[in-house]
Automatic annotation (TrEMBL):
It comes from Rhizobium herbae. The lineage of its organism: Bacteria, Pseudomonadati, Pseudomonadota, Alphaproteobacteria, Hyphomicrobiales. Residues 38-110 form the (S)-ureidoglycine aminohydrolase cupin domain. Residues 1-23 are annotated as: Disordered. This is Cupin superfamily protein. It comes from the Bacteria.
Length: 114
């Protein structure tokens, strides 16, 4: 077993996805996800990318992410807008509800704990 993990998107094929139709607000965003780690205890780590569009988000899990490229806006219901660009990091906690809008195709690396 290897105890170090690198995030090399050329090493695996990405999974394709999109927001659920009932969450879509605008655009036709498409997702690509390179999930490098699925560990016991509900830990996930990888890279996620989305094309422009806007959709509703609701978190049951804890997620830390770091924006690698692109521009997005996350808005918490009843809260402030957070503008995200390359170099920015954020944590979304269980119970977070709001919207995610991709302005320019956005790529992030992430660690999720369910």
């Amino acid at each position: 077993m290897t105890y170090a993990l690198t995030f090399d998107p050329t090493s695996i094929e990405p999974e394709a996805g999109a927001p659920a139709p009932d969450r879509l607000i605008s655009g036709t965003p498409e997702f690509r996800t390179w999930n490098f780690e699925e560990a016991e205890g509900g830990i996930y780590a990888g890279i996620w990318e989305a094309t422009p569009g806007k959709w509703r988000i609701a978190y049951d899990e804890w997620e830390y992410f770091h924006i690698l490229s692109g521009v997005s806006v996350v808005i918490e219901d009843g809260g402030a807008e957070t503008h995200l660009k390359a170099g920015d990091s954020m944590i979304l906690r269980p119970g977070f509800k709001g919207t995610w809008e991709v302005i320019e195709t956005t790529r992030k690396d992430y660690v999720i704990r369910v």
